[in-house]
Amino acid sequence: MTKNILIAGFGGQGVLFAGKFLAYKGMLEGKQISWLPSYGPEMRGGTANCSVIISDEPVGSPIVSKPDILIAMNLPSLDKYEKDVVSGGMIFVDSTLIGRKVERTDVKVFYVPSTKLAQEIGAPKLSNMILMGKVIKEAGAVSYENLEDGLKKVVPAKHADMFDINLKAIETGYNY
Amino acid sequence: MAEKVLMKGNEAIAEAAIKAGCRHYFGYPITPQTEIAAYMAKRMPKINGVFLQAESEISAINMVYGVAGTGYRVMTSSSSPGVSLKQEGISYIAGADLPALIVNVQRGGPGLGGIQPSQSDYFQATKGGGHGDYHLIVVAPASVQEMADLTILSFDLAEKYRVPAMLLADGTMGQMMEPVELPEVDYKPTEKDWTVTGTQMKRKHNIVNSLYLSPEELERTNFERFERYKQIEENEVRYESFMMDDAEYCVVAFGIASRVSKNAVIAARNMGIKVGMIRPITLWPFPVKPIAEAADKVKAFLSVELSMGQMIEDVKLASECKKPVYLCNRVGGMIPTPEQVLESIKKMAGGEN
C-alpha cells in the first residue's frame, strides 16, 4: 500500500505541521515515509503545501504530483490541485473557507467545516488537525491508535500546553 | 542501533558532521541550505565547537582553509551562487592538499538563478570548479540517510587522501524529511605529520601553501596529487545498481533524479520493458567501470538530470559511445515527474528517442 498525500493551504494554517504529524505517525507504525515541503519566498498568508508519502515499500520520488489524498485548506489550493487527484482518490475540504463544491465526480469528497469546528473547541488555529482526524478515519493511511505517540514527536516541549488541544482537535475531526 | 528520527536532509548533514568529529563550521546563509547553519549555530556552542557566520562566502571558505591546515575536521555549506564564490578558496585548499568538507545544496542557475532544486553544478563540482588541475571527491546522496552517511564518509575520505570533498545535494534532498538513523562514529583525531599546530621547538616547521614559484616543484606536486587521485579512482567508486541483471536499457541518475527515475523504472518493468538503473553515489570518481560493462550489454542509456545535460558527458565517456545516450531533463528548479521519465524510457525502448 502506498498513500500519496498532498496538504495545501495558506502559510500559517499548519500545513507543514499536519504533514509532519502524519509522517511521524506513519513512521511509528513501521511504514516507509517521506515529507517534502514547498519552500519558497512565501511567508504567512502565502501558499504552502507539503507532500507526504506513507508506504509499505521504500519511497521513490518524494514529490506528490498525483495525490491519492488531497487536503485542501483554502480555495486556491482546491482550484490548483483538484485536477491532479487520481481517479478514485479522496479530497478533504475545509468547507468553512471553501464555498464551492468539488467538480470531480470520480473522487470521494469529504466536506468538513474544520475552521468552524476549531473555533468551537476553542482552538481556532487547529483546523489542520481537525482535518487530520477526518483523514485518519476515512483514508486509512495511519491508524487512530496511539495518537499521543505521533503527536508527542511534533508538539515541541515549549508548547507542551498545546498537546491536549491538538489531541482534542484530531478527535473532533475523527468523530465529525 | 540508534533510534530512527525524522530529520530534514540539511539537519542530517549537520548532525552527522558533528558525529564525525567536525567542531568547526563557517558559513553564510543561503536558501535552500540555511538549516545546516542554523543547526550548527544551535549545537556547536554546546559541544565546545565553533560556529561562525562569516561576512561572506569567500571569508567562510578561507576560514575553512585555515582550520584545515591544523588537521581538525572542518566544513562549510552553501548553495550554488555561494559555492561559486568559494571556488578560489577551494582551489587553494586542493592545492595545499588539505582535507575539508564543502556542502552544495544546489539551486537553479546560472547567475542568482532561483531557489528551487537543481543539479546544474555537476560540471563545477566534478571537473574542478576553480582554477588549476584538481579534483574534489564528490558524493551525491539520494536519501536523508545518505545525507548523513555520506557526510561521514566525506570526512573520512578527505582526511585519508588529503583532498577536499564535496557533498553535492539539491534543494529537495535538503528540505525533505525521512527517517534517519545517525550512526555513532568512533572518531579520534590522529597525529598528522603535516599540520601547522606549533612545533614546540621540537621539529622542523610545516608549511601549508599552494604557491610554488619553481615550475619543476609545482609540476611535481601536481603529479604527486594525481597519483593520489588514481588511488581514489581505483578504491573509492560507489554506486547502486538497480534491476540491472537482465536490463536491456540503462537509466543513469543521481540524487533526486534517481528517486524519480526509480519510480519510472519500476513502472516500465511492469509494462515489460527490461530497464535498470545505475545510480552514481560518487560523482567523482565516476562509476566508469559499471557503465562500461553495461555498454556491452544494454541497447541504450538514458541520463536523467536536473541540468541541460552535464553528467551525460561522463556517461558517453564511460560507455565510449558504444551505445546511444539519451537525455531526460528539467531545469531551472523544475523536476521531471516519473511519468516524464517513463515516457523517455518508452521512447528509448521504441528506438525513437
Features:
heterodimer, A: 176 residues, alpha/beta, Pyruvate-ferredoxin Oxidoreductase, domain 3, six-stranded mixed sheet, 35% helix, B: 353 residues, Rossmann fold, 2 domains, five-stranded mixed sheet, 13 helices, 14 strands
Question: Would you kindly provide a written description of the structure presented here, covering whatever features stand out?
Answer:
The complex is a heterodimer of chains A (176) and B (353). Chain A has one domain (2-174): Pyruvate-ferredoxin oxidoreductase, PFOR, domain III (Pyruvate-ferredoxin Oxidoreductase, domain 3, 3-Layer(aba) Sandwich). Chain A starts with a strand and ends with a helix. In chain A, strands 2-3-1-4-5-6 form a 6-stranded mixed sheet, with helices on both faces. The radius of gyration of chain A is 15 Å and the shape is globular. Chain A is α/β, with parallel strands linked by helices. In chain A, α3 (114-120) packs across α4 (127-139) and α4 (127-139) crosses α6. Chain A has helices at residues 15-28, 75-81, 114-120, 127-139, 147-154, 163-174; strands at 2-10, 32-37, 47-55, 69-72, 90-94, 108-112. In chain B, the strands form 3 sheets. A 7-stranded mixed sheet of chain B has the order 3-2-4-5-7-6-12, sandwiched between helices. Chain B folds into 2 domains: 4-193 and 221-235, Rossmann fold (3-Layer(aba) Sandwich); 239-350, Rossmann fold, CATH 3.40.50.920. Chain B is α/β, with parallel strands linked by helices. In chain B, 40% of the residues lie in helices and 19% in strands. Classes of the chains: A alpha/beta (176), B alpha/beta (353).
